[in-house]
Amino acid sequence: xxxxxxxxxxxxxxxxxxxxxxxxxxxxxxxxxxxxxxxxxxxxxxxxxxxxxxxxxxxxxxxxxxxxxxxxxxxxxxxxxxxxxxxxxxxxxxxxxxxxxxxxxxxxxxxxxxxxxxxxxxxxxxxxxxxxxxxxxxxxxxxxxxxxxxxxxxxxxxxxxxxxxxxxxxxxxxxxxxxxxxxxxxxxxxxxxxxxxxxxxxxxxxxxxxxxxxxxxxxxxxxxxxxxxxxxxxxxxxxxxxxxxxxxxxxxxxxxxxxxxxxxxxxxxxxxxxxxxxxxxxxxxxxxxxxxxxxxxxxxxxxxxxxxxxxxxxxxxxxxxx
Length: 322
What we know:
Layout: H1 11-30, E1 34-35, E2 41-42, E3 54-58, E4 61-65, H2 70-78, E5 84-91, E6 103-112, H3 116-133, E7 139-145, H4 146-154, H5 163-172, H6 177-180, H7 185-200, E8 205-210, E9 232-237, E10 240-247, H8 252-268, H9 278-287, E11 291-297, H10 298-306
Parallel strand pairs: 1-5, 7-8
Antiparallel strand pairs: 2-4, 3-4, 5-6, 6-11, 8-9, 9-10, 10-11
């Protein structure tokens, strides 16, 4: 008999997941952070080269299911909301696997006046709280720069290494010749993080990998002290990325330039060309307060907290059963 009508997670797991959601909300309530809700179907989507959006149609006008609530949350910040957080469903096309589902739960928050060390410490505190609520107690957190991690794991400085060195390292660690052909420097760095550096991080502890190359700044500020790097970090536990955070870019002009660079890269790759979100740019021109923000994959945290090995083990109905 067909059993795919049943949830993929056990009812006990779903109860424990609900308790983790309560814990996350309590964490922010204790810090005076306002919970907000923003639309799931948006008139604009991201230009990020690494992300593909799901499109829907409504009243003859296209909409995109949010890949993150970042843009509308920044509009709230510019309107004077103060510190905010949100727990919501987000969607990313083509992301399926042990750690991926096209629809997943994101915990995103923004804190006014926080610098990179402060937002990393808060992210570690939240993750440790959630893991402890599930019965896992990680060791003391590690803070390591992107460059230091590359030197430790691969023996090269990712900011200064010749392109040929990155090609050789990528080939040595399994990237095929066809994939190497035409790969950009950032493509090679991403491959090495995914296959070598990332899996080594957070073993028995939480690790923040910080100061990514400026070319991977996304919506983060470039570090004035070292313009080769961005004020961006990722949080890892047991080799799994849990969160991505920035000291947020506030310049509308620079954000416009980054959107245009994204679209140029998407054209080269033959990918869709979404319109730039003019409302976000207008909010930045009106004035985004100095802040840092983090997007955390709640399902992955729940996996680690509850001892699951697949993301579907902590979801009621993953994509294959929805």
